Amino acid sequence: MMRIAVVGASGFVGRALLLHLLDETNYHVTAISRNVMPLVHPDAATRLRWIPCDLHNLKELEEALAEQEAAVYLIHSMLPTARLNQGNFADFDLSLADNFARAAGMVGIRHVVYLSGLIPEGIQLSEHLQSRLEVEQVLRCYLPLVTSLRTGIIIGAAGSSFTILVNLVRRLPFMLCPKWTVNRCQVISLPDVVRTISRCLSEAPLQGQTWDLGAEPPISYLDMMKETARLLGLRRWFQTLPLMTVGLSRLWVSLVSGAPKNLVYPLVDSLKTSMLVRSTHRFPPSEPPFENFPEAVERLLLEMPKNEEQRPHAFTLRLFKGKQKYVRSIQRLPLPAGKDASWVAEEYLRYLPQLMPFLIRIVRQGSIVHMRLKLVEIDLLTLRYSPERSRQNRQVFYIVGGLLFSRGRLRARLEIRETLGGKACLAAVHDYRPALPWPIYRWSQAEVHRLFMKRLAAHLASERVV
Hints:
Elements: E1 3-7, H1 12-24, E2 28-33, H2 44-47, E3 48-52, H3 58-65, E4 70-73, E5 84-86, H4 89-107, E6 111-117, H5 127-142, E7 145-151, E8 154-155, H6 160-171, E9 174-178, E10 184-185, E11 188-189, H7 190-202, E12 210-213, E13 219-220, H8 221-232, E14 237-241, H9 246-257, H10 261-269, H11 293-303, H12 306-310, E15 327-334, H13 341-355, E16 360-365, E17 368-373, E18 378-385, E19 394-401, E20 413-419, E21 424-432, H14 438-443, H15 445-462
Parallel strand pairs: 1-2, 1-4, 2-3, 4-6, 5-15, 6-7, 7-12, 8-11, 9-14
Antiparallel strand pairs: 10-13, 15-21, 16-17, 17-18, 18-19, 19-20, 20-21
Helix pairs in contact: 1-7, 3-4, 4-5, 6-8, 6-9, 8-11, 9-10, 13-15
């Protein structure tokens, strides 16, 4: 029996996929996510193993993925995983995908299915859709067989895009709709998504391809809202306003739907153009055919308990609300031709005292790096280089002490790695717990680090012409 890992198993697609694989296949399934979320199923005790894993931690991922033959990658990083996430979601997505792909390649996983997004052709892509393409690219850098399934809006009870749509319809009797709401897209229902993933895991001719998934006929976001109102039995009035900007749209969608702006802003940016299936990449016809929008929503309403149908839905995605003061910072850096991560790490340590010559000096003692306050010779931060976890394309320094560092239950580290086949580099600080009181840290040390990384990126870019 094949052993399958589902990475991102706690999400709404992941949980539906787990149930489908237990119902319809004889696979042994490993569910991987930040937190364990027990699943009620008669075969769960014998065929399902749930492993809690920090997906930013390469060593944990290697251990979780060991002995797996194939994997389904369902991670999209648009919500915070620490009290402070410093960096944009695209760099977080790229870092997570690079981490997963490295680990999967190391343990010998043969085939990965990735759930991506429909990519319009011939236009400048939004950051959200460009990020989806980068994830596809980085997976193919490390793995022999990658199947990419590109979808538009997934219609499911806990899906983020569908939840936003339903909340808008429930909460607003009259809506002023921006011009982008008349753009068409091709939706797909959650059951059709999980059936398609399962087919790709078992049918060799489907593997290693990029497939577009979407029901016929295409439908506009405006018509989706009208149809949802009809099926809910609600009288709603809609008026399009062609002058309404995308920026203003993002704001009111977030405020009215209750969805966090970290999620809404990238999604709305992606709706500026139609999201349609390409005829050259259309997934082979299946029986039964994909549900269209009215069919999928009507089925959802029939399955929904009556009291649940009648009350407004709160947004269900969980935000990070922990009291621990952990910080995660990920920034993309240019990588000059012929250079690698070990060179970037050296430049990082060399450039820091150059930028602040009267404040900081670097002292090295074997594998220990002291970032020292120059006038009083006190370590601000103490790092230990880890040769056992480092390679030329990935450098790891554990943060082990210093005036600005407070030990916590997690292992803080600075990591510099190449990605996208050597076209870029990521510099990341993971699981860092500051010693300064949080408000002081947030507007002093954190801002200094952000500005330093910006200056470092400009410095490395200048190396291209040296």
